[in-house]
Every structure is written in C-alpha cells, then in structure tokens.
Design brief:
3 helices; 0% strand; 47% helix; mainly alpha; single chain
Length: 100
C-alpha cells in the first residue's frame, strides 16, 4: 500500500483537498486550538483521536479505491460494500476453507 499511496499523492488527477486530508488532521492534532481544549482530561484528547482516526480511515479508503492510470471508476464499479478488491476490481471474499 505504500507505493500506491505515493502514486496517489503524486497523481495530478486526484483532488488537492483529498491529498491534504491527512496533513490537515495532523495539523489539527498539533495545533493548540482545538474544538475541545486538551487541558480537559480525556475529552480533550478524544477529539484529537477522533479527527486523526477519521482522516486515517478516509485516506486508507481513498488509496484502496485509487487505480493509477486507469479510467475513472463509475458509481457502478465502486460497490461501496467494504470488501477488499484485487487489481481487476473483483471482490476478494475471505473463505473459511483450509488450503492444502
């Protein structure tokens, strides 16, 4: 996933705001200005954790859906079912069968 992430970041067809989502979350984390101040025990840290978690989830999903150099995915191609997909876009459904 590391090389795909770097291709995603370097691709000019990907929107700038999508690339900056992770960076903005980190800036919010280190910023002294928060929605809930950090000096309030537990709640001050939970808002930072929530923002970082949401940004990480967003970036992981974006990079997983990214197909470098390929045609733009239509809404029919992206099922939104949460299943991992192989290079051809087919769902990889885990099975309980033992191999061997």
């Amino acid at each position: 996933m590391g090389t795909r992430f770097f291709r995603y970041v370097r691709d000019p067809k990907v929107g700038t705001w999508r690339k900056l989502a992770g960076l903005l979350a980190v800036l919010y984390f280190v910023s002294p200005v928060d929605a809930v101040p950090d000096f309030i025990p537990l709640f001050g840290w939970l808002d930072d954790l929530g923002v970082l978690s949401a940004a990480a989830l967003f970036m992981v999903r974006e990079v997983q859906r990214y197909s470098p150099g390929g045609p733009a995915a239509s809404p029919e191609d992206v099922a939104g079912d949460g299943l991992p997909r192989d290079e051809a876009g087919q769902p990889r459904v885990p099975t309980l069968r033992r191999h061997g």
